[in-house]
Amino acid sequence: MPDTDKIVFFHSPQSRSAGTRVLLEELNAPYAMRVLNMRAGELRQPAFLAINPMGKVPAILHNGVLVTEQVAINVFLADLFPAAGLTPAIGDPRRGPYLRWMAFYAACYEPAVVDKAMKREPGPLAMSPYGTFETVMDVVNTQLRAVPYMLGDSFTVADVLWGGALGWTTQFGLVPKTPEIEAYIERTSSRPAFRRVKQQDAELAAAQKPS
Q: If DSSP codes are grouped into helix, strand and coil, which group holds residue 85?
């Protein structure tokens, strides 16, 4: 990829954008990182709100095109670097399940976890986007009981998303750490890109703390 195509990546350490940083490393993608201090309120300042009015990371710019939303960014980046082999191509029988798990994360898992954490009722089944928290977690655990990764035997971009998400949600006690989930977190977090980003993000976060 020419240097002019370098990805501009907006990142705040130890946030959801850490998963995007892991993916960029897994893809060996050229990127320039713009680090924001969440604790100092930089995500809510006009400069970044012009990038993402939601005031959230991650966000990327590529060839003048802005992409926000974690799942959209992950799908976009993995398709941009097919040679890395982390995403099923159109026509691959795994493409449907891959998109299903990516959408399931945003449409079901995160809303269910947030409602559970906030002690909010999910609403009537006919209106809830995810049904019940227990159903969501049963779906995830059933999949991880059957296969080592979300799509089977091979690590994909879906595992970058789910490995990071299950890691932080179990760390904070938001979801139960079942044997299936614990083993999956170990498989994904032991990869060099995960370990590297965790260490580098810890250093960035430490540098952002008030002296």
A: coil
Q: Is this model's pTM higher than 0.90 or not?
A: yes
165 by DSSP, 3-state: which? Answer: helix
- Report the alpha-carbon distance of residue 140 to residue 199 in Å, rounded: 28
Q: Please spell the DSSP secondary structure of 103-150, one letter per residue.
A: HHIIIIIHHHHHHHHTT-----TTT-SS--HHHHHHHHHHHHHH-SBT
Confidence (pLDDT) at 4: 45
Q: Nearest CA to 134 among 95, 99, 176, 103?
A: 176
The answer to whether 175 and 117 have CB atoms below 8 angstroms apart is no
Q: Tell which CATH classification among 3.60.40.10, 2.60.40.10, 1.20.1050.10, 2.130.10.10 matches the domain 95-193.
A: 1.20.1050.10
Task: Please give the average per-residue pLDDT across 49-76, as a whole number.
Answer: 96
